[in-house]
Amino acid sequence: MTRYSRQTRMLVAVDCIIFGFDGQDLKLLLIKRGFDPEKGKWSLMGGFVQPEEALDAAAVRTLNKLTGLDGVYMEQLAAFGTPQRDPMERTLSVAYFALIDINLYKQQLSDEYKAEWFSLRDIPKLIFDHADMVHEAQARLRYKAAIHPILFELLPPKFTIPQLQILFEAVYDAGFDKRNFSRKVLSTGLLVKQKEKERASSKRGAFYYKLDKRKYSAKFHAFLNFVSDPGNLR
């Protein structure tokens, strides 16, 4: 096999920033690293790209290995390649972020990695440059949520407007005015009102809604500039 001459080889890895929403808080899934360096410390879920494997396939495999999930919303974030980022060996990492509903999939987590969910307000110290990856993923999530309805990927099949507002407030770390938020989100035409109400949170209850998946696919830009200025929803 012909190779480029006088070139140094390096490893390529993928790391997955896995966001989840439990109805009240936006969280991050972390594992205890099982090998040196930094064994026993908190880490993102990652792995090395195999010789015959595409980057996206490696990320899907890594996510599935931890959660048992397929068909999850996942997006390539960025490459991280500072020469000394991994003290063991020169390693380039391509980071991905994924969105899952904690309530649906919490029983499918692998016990092998001692995975735990952490609130984004209480993330422990992470190995290498994983904190930088998380911060960049948060920024990307805020940007994407302002122009696309991707946050619905974090919600159960039916949900209330207050639950949706809690999610947006968690993502943007900002409070939104209830009336303005409800008006804005309903104006997208993506939600289908249900007959039943959620009554655990209040006596009046709040109607459940479902996402119109056909419109979600056909009108993916319906949220365009939804929160370009979070102040206009306060």
Distance between the termini: 62 Å
Radius of gyration over C-alpha positions, nearest whole angstrom:
20 Å
* Share of residues in strands: 25-35%
Share in helix: 25-40%
Q: Number of domains in the coordinates?
A: 2
The largest sheet is: 7 strands, mixed
CATH class category of the largest domain: Alpha Beta
Q: DSSP helix count?
A: 6
* Mean pLDDT across residues: 88
Oligomer: single chain
Write down the secondary-structure element order: EEEEHEEHEHEHHEEH
CATH level 4 superfamily of the largest domain:
Nucleoside Triphosphate Pyrophosphohydrolase
Backbone shape:
elongated
- The number of E-state strands comes to 10
Category from helices, strands and their pairing: alpha+beta
Looking at the overall shape, the CATH architecture of the largest domain is Alpha-Beta Complex
CATH fold-level topology of the largest domain: Nucleoside Triphosphate Pyrophosphohydrolase
